[in-house]
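Hello Y.,

Per our agreement to keep a running log of every chain we model this quarter, I'm adding this entry. I've kept the format consistent with earlier entries: sequence first, then predicted structure.
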Amino acid sequence: MLEPDGSDHTVSLGAHAPDLTDADEVFKVLRAYNFELSYGALLKSSRDQMKDTVVWNIEQGIALSGAQIGRAERKRTELYHRGREFMERYTFLAAPVVQVLPFAVEQPWVREINGQPMTTYVDWMRSCYFITTTGLPAISVPCGFSADGLPVGLQIVGRHRDDFGVLQLAHAFERHTAFWKTRPAIASS
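Predicted structure for the entry above:
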């Protein structure tokens, strides 16, 4: 993170982390609601042509009550304010895009991370969707490769309404590192 005075030393998150309480519930409820709104009619006419995870997400939306949606919207507003207030102390927040390296295309979704089971097909993306729930501007940029040559991304999060600042930092990061130009060694199998 960058300090408010612009110094660019790294800060250990610890107590400096934004409060993302309820981000998981907010994201999953509003995602299910949106899936039902967007694809509910398609489920009736083309269920047999839909991926099981999409069917599951639409059905989660169908099962929602108005009270659940209202609660998620209220909690999203609270998250927004906590995120905005947190970012008043920092110019930017840098975080991983996702918690795992890219996985085989044949694997529908990550079932476990470091011994922790993932209960839904989106859980492995928490580090990204938690930021989404805050409404803060964010961008993902390439930041290197694993030892096996798999790409790794960095999520840059900015202050409320500082989309341009986020774009500027992302551009500066890409120019400085040139990771976007680098290609991993391709296995010869």
